[in-house]
Amino acid sequence: MRIKTGIEGFDELIEGGLLQDRQYLVSGSPGSGKTTFGVQFLASGALAGEAGAYIILSESADTIIEDMSRYNLLIGELVSKKKLFFLDLGPAIQYGSYEELSSVITPDYEQSQAESPEEAPPTPFSVFMYIEAAVKQHNIKRLVIDSLSAIRFASMYPAQEEKSIGRFIRNLKTLGCTTILLSELINPEAYTIEQFASHGVIFLHNFLDDQKHTMVRAVQIIKMRGTKHDCEMRGIEFTKKGLVVLKPLK
Ligand SMILES: Nc1ncnc2c1ncn2[C@@H]1O[C@H](COP(=O)(O)OP(=O)(O)OP(=O)(O)O)[C@@H](O)[C@H]1O
Ligand SMILES: [Mg+2]
Question: 78: domain range?
């Protein structure tokens, strides 16, 4: 079954939508539209009766709700009907607490010397446990995690870090949700572990056009397992409805 993102012009690029219960990565530069993309995906499901949760690890929930409420996405109504949840993990998670070992996390609790346990970002284990509880409690079917970059996968050993990210993404599959993981796009040329581990990868670009001296916004589908998808870099526009996908850039 295909899950519609609800983003105008996008679903037709991926055979009608995302595949159910899979994990997708939406990676983009600052201000490229990651939050907007994720919230539109959740609002579209919520309108059709599927509860969705936006898991916040990077900013405050109030700021995101305030900004996203400026679009005609019925955010306030969906939140009050308990079809859309903005869950702020900042206060909920004991940052840096030393959890029990589980299948979710590698046995690795090193922190950089500059970090005290209170300041260290949450571990994949604590984030997963929180999400699992929320999914069960609210019967969540769509998830957005903002962002993967804010979780502490770091390890002294690169192979261990790779395992930890892969394991986190595989564990999300057990939740029975279609999930969008947001992440910072540092270098579009370099492939990252989370890109390999996800079922699909979407880039949101926001770059300077040297000739026109303006920022150009675009979306591009990098991979989409099991799907015949578009590969062009397509313009995007922020409208009252949120993001709208336009024609390929020249
Ligand atoms: N109401 C609005 N109407 C049109 N465009 C808007 C509106 N609100 C925000 N924008 C545009 O959207 C951009 C931010 O989008 P969004 O928050 O989805 O990006 P992001 O990739 O999540 O950013 P960050 O990297 O900061 O998390 C703003 O920089 C602005 O250009
Ligand atoms: Mg954002």
Answer: 17-203
* Residue 246 domain-assigned (yes or no): no
* C-beta of 107 in contact with ligand 1 (< 6 A): no
Q: 10 Å Cβ neighbour count for 88?
A: 17
Ion ligand 2: residue ranges with CB closer than 5 A? 34-35
Q: Is residue 241 part of a domain?
A: no
Distance 31 CA to ligand 2 centre (A): 7
The model's pTM: 0.91
Annotate 82-140 with DSSP letters as a single string: TSEEEEEHHHHS-TT--PPP-TTS-S-----TT--TTTSPPPHHHHHHHHHHHHHHHT-
Give per-residue pLDDT as tens, 47-79: 999 999 999 998 889 999 999 999 999 999 999
Assign residue 35 the CATH number of its domain: 3.40.50.300
